[in-house]
Amino acid sequence: MPVTGSPSANPGRRVDKFSTKIGQPIVFDGRSTPIKTALFIILCAGWILPGLIGHDPWKTESTTFGIIYSMLQEGNWLLPAVAGIPNSDYPPLYYWVAAAMAKIFSPILPLHDGARLATALFIAITLTYTHKTARRLFDERAGRISVVLLIGSLGIFVRGHEMNPEVGGLAGIAVALYGLTRIRSETTKGGITTGVGTGIVAMAIGIVPALVIPAIAITLVWMLGEWKNRLFQRGIGVALLAALPFMVVYPASLLILGTISPLMWTDAILGAPLLEAITRTSIDPIFYVRILPWFGLPALPLAVWLWWKDRRKMRERFELALPFISFIVLLLWWSFFREANDAVGLALLLPLVLAGAGVLDRLSRSAASFMDWFSLLFFGLLVTAIWLYWIAAIVGVPESFARNMATQVPGFAFTFGWLPFCVAMALTLVWVYAVARAHRNSRRAVVNWAAGITVVWVLLNMFALSALNHRQSYRSTAAALRVQLPETRKCVAAINLGEPQRAMLDYFAQLRFVKAELNLATGCDWLLTQGSKESGPKVDSVWQLSWEGSRPGDNSERFRLYRRLGD
Fold first, then answer.
1. pLDDT tens-digit readout, 130-165
2. Which one, 163, 313, 361, 371, has least CB within 10 Å?
């Protein structure tokens, strides 16, 4: 029997203790408490998990999934292809991991949802190593806030939930930066970690992007004046040796099979559109400078302020030099050697959040208050608007909101679901509680920003994911097209059919096409064109329009199906 006064004999006392803890202010000072740990876990899970499952591949990830689907269906593990046509945009690491995930989870998830879990894996690696790097650069308190800054970055908001090989490169760079923090004191361990991270980059996005890591290391040696530091030099050598197998295994495999081509070499293996005139046009040296003012929020102004404030100490302090050099080298490397694409720019966020994590405690009260006020107002209005639009979509009031929703997703009927409602309400209440109980300091501003983004992301997924999928998916278009084509057809030629569309028509309707410019297309009795709503590609008079359609509410794309006269 428990003695009187023991905790087990007084369950009410435990409840009172819990209530007291819940009612206390939350001080975001970098120190761990059960309440703050729980909120941190909710924040990470709420940001990472929604959006990964429950929707078809959308246009921005269709090509990636087309390659994954081809690997699973046809075994094209070394030669990425979309609907039978080779694709040489990236090396195969992300595709391999995604295909494995799709296969493992195929008993419980559609292939595309299972494949998207590869993104969650690489993002989790990125967050983990960002946390570890910040702790080594600064102190224990910098780890979690660096993760919060990365989660709160506008640039990763959508791209961090898509099927995209760039997240594999992002994870590799995060691992390599952590290795660089150890390379001066633990030469072997640091060098191997850096080399493995570099190798992941090479296998995920190409050799040229991977060389940015040695470039960062060498620039660090120069900036810190450590040319005579043999441990540092030896660590860089170990890193290069560790990375070398990753860099050569893919091209060596292709050479052995005799399937390598100049295009495959320059695009997929090197990962840089340098040699072909057409692909060189995708390089825009000022693209990343243009997008950084919004892409890098909220970490960018924090990092710039730190580097300006401590510019005279940069050559003396490794914790300042590593994020600064990493950002400058990455920016230059990406601007001149990589495609101008916001998904490619994800790596630029890593040094920004590392620098931001080290400066928060030095932020002025006025700057922290402005960021805090802005995040509360901005995300508060967004959260309110999402709830209002969802209520209007369900009950029809306010009428103007309901009409707007019907216009955006024609043909879609919103329905009430208890699970999405309860999840959305629970996260909203947790957010309100955290905001209301948080003690005002510089870290609160960043936490409120990231929490606001996470709540918005959860609400959009709970309330609008099905509607967005109705508008963005090619499933209904593929089904409608499939019905129009007889089983006895010879073949279907295609004009202007994009790679994402080709991938989705193959996945949803098992339809494959012959490019109209090929000799083989002359024997086709059907022709599919892709154009705009107003007009499409001109076709010969031998073709008669049989069907046209598009995704619901899509005014930018229009498919037109023609049948050859006389057949």
1. 999 999 999 888 999 999 999 999 999 999 999 999
2. 313
Q: What is the CA radius of gyration of the chain?
A: 26
Max Cα-Cα span within the chain: 96
Give the DSSP letter of residue 157: T
Q: pLDDT tens, 298-336?
A: 999 999 999 999 999 999 999 999 999 999 999 999 999
List phi, psi (to 5°) of 86.
-55, 145
Ordered DSSP codes for 465-519:
HHHHHHHH-SHHHHHHHHHHS-TT---EEEES--HHHHHHHHHHH----EETTSG
Residues whose CB falls within 8 Å of the CB of residue 4, separated by 6 or more in sequence, listed in order = none
Residue 447 and residue 147: Cα distance in Å, rounded? 10
Measured distance CA(414)–CA(41) in Å, rounded: 31
Q: Please report which helix (H) or strand (E) contains residue 551, including its range.
A: none
Cα separation, 422 vs 146, in Å, equals 30
Amino acid making up residue 464: A
Range list of H helices, 258-398: 262-263, 277-280, 287-295, 299-309, 318-337, 349-357, 365-395
Query: Identity (one letter) of the amino acid at 476?
Result: S
**Other beta carbons within 10 Å of 399:** 9
